[in-house]
Structure formats: C-alpha cells, structure tokens
Amino acid sequence: MCNVITKRTRALFNDKSGQWYGKLEVLYPTDKCKNGSTIYVCLCHVCGDQCEVPGKRLFVGGNTSCGCNRWNRQHIGKDMVGKRYGMLLVESRAPNDKATWHWNCVCDCGKRIVACGAELRNGSKTHCGCSSKRGIRHSSEQLKPGDRSGMLTLVKQVRVTAKTKTKDGTQPVWLCVCDCGETTTVRSNYLRESNRHQRKSCGCLVDIRRAERKGVNHPSYNPDLTNEQRKHRAFDRDNYKWTQAVLKRDECCQRCGTTDRLEAHHIYPYAWHPNLRKEPTNGIALCNDCHRAYHHQHGRTKCNANQISNFIGRRIRVKKDTKCNS
Questions:
Q1: Domain hosting residue 15, numbered range
Q2: Worst-scoring range by mean pLDDT, 103-117, 159-173, 229-243?
Q3: Cys bridge to 268: 35, 107, 131, 273, which one at CB 3.0-4.6 A?
Q4: pTM of the shown model
Q5: Does some domain include residue 319?
Q6: For the chain, how big is the Rg over CA atoms in Å?
Q7: For the segment 306-315, what is each residue's pLDDT rounded down to a tens digit?
C-alpha cells in the first residue's frame, strides 16, 4: 500500500542529522518511516517552522523547504504597478481566483484590459489588440522621417535586396542615423515600440550598457571581496591546470559514467577552503547534469566529502594535510 506511515523497525544505517537540503536543515530522525524511508525532523530557514520529511524526498531534491517557498511564489508575485510593457501601462492588480497574478492595464489607445503578469513580462502581451487592427506591425505609413527609436533617428525609406523571395527581389527599409554617428538600415517592424525586438541603436548600445555594468555597478558586485579574491574568481591558469588534471584522471562522470560536458567539481568549496584549491584529491569529474543536481541538493557553501560520497555511491577521501604547490 502506498504512502503508509509505519514504525521504523530497523536500525538507522546513515544518519543525515546536521546536513542541509536547500533551505532545510536536518535536525534528528524519528522512529517513523514512510514507504521504507526514515522520516526526519527538519528546520526550514525561510520561515523558521519545523516539518517532517521522508529521507527519500530530501535526497532526490523533492523538498527544499517546508512548503513556504511554493506558497510565496504563488501568492506574493511581483509588483508591476507603474511599469510599461509595449503599449500597455500597468495601473493596479486585478483580483482573480487563479494562481497567476493579473493586472489592470491601460493601452495607449485608451482602452483598459486585464492582462496576465507572465504574458506582460515575457513580451507576448504588448497591446490591447488595437495594434494588429490598425496594421502597425505590417505597414510603414505611420513612420515618418525624424521619428525616434531609442538612439536611432529615421532619415528616409530606401529599398535593399530582400533576404526572402519577393516580386522584385527588394524590400523597403528605413535608413537611420544613430546618436554615435553611424548609419544603419532597419526594417519598419523593428522600429515599433510594440515589438519586443525593437532596434534602439546601431549596436553601440550593447557596449554602452556593458560598460555601465562594470565594477560597482554590476548587479553581482560583492563589496565584501578583496582584490585577491576577485583575481581568483577571474581566469586563473593554475586553476585551469587543476581542472585539466582532474578531468584527465577521472575521464568520465563519476556518478553516471558519461563523457559528455564534463566539469571539475571542488569537493570542499573553492571560496571557503583556499588551501585545497589546487589539491587534485579535492576535485572530482561530474557531467553538467549531475553537477547541477548535486548543488541543487546540497547548496554551494557547506559541501564536503561525505555529501559527494553519498551522491556518487562510493567513498571519497581528500588529503587535507597535503601542502599545495604554488
């Protein structure tokens, strides 16, 4: 019979107390089991509640919280009031009985509609329907010289060789001048605000945004790191040699045996154990899928040899007292 909770009769072979699985910290095992799997009492570090979870659900990554994460994703949502998506401006949230959030939006034509938040964010909903009725996406009559599209200024309409089959082998495009001084040709449908692939520059905008996201302006910038730690996070020739040595030694994924997309995994984390960064026994070859599955179960900060041993099914030892070569 499925999903039967009974009393555990056998001795516990491997106690998982103290280990982490997602946001759950295993406190202690109980004397109950579910379908042959020992039930553990876990502490959720998201909401602070305790819950009972079968061991199998923890090991395969089925449970990473007490359930509050799923509730938060369904009920908290994202505040989109005041944001613009194409021709739609979000005014307020629309009440509904569904799991997804809906929003009251006003179109540039004046019509008000209710749109799904996911459709607004992924660009599949950019107008109330008036855009397709007026033929904005297919005609160039409403575009005129002097109009702006981001950093581009429309100059005149010209005809160029078409990439697809047409009657005369040409197609109409707009000759545009970018604010940087370069000229480019753009099809009319890529100059519309309703198009999520709208062209806004000759290509220089990518370099500008990349320069603006460097250093302290980068969203992943960590002010707690030193310059030496940032240097290690960049390309390190010694770390490259260590990676090649680990992959050459193991030759295949040590969990599933595949030779595709192999990656070198630090058994003890690179950031927390600097004396083991170049130690060959602190590395193991895993394929991309197994590598992601391991970090999904055990996180990235409290990894150790016991966890990787249980993950691949055999004992792994790391020489911690080995003096690393500089």
A1: 5-72
A2: 229-243
A3: 273
A4: 0.33
A5: no
A6: 28
A7: 888 889 888 8
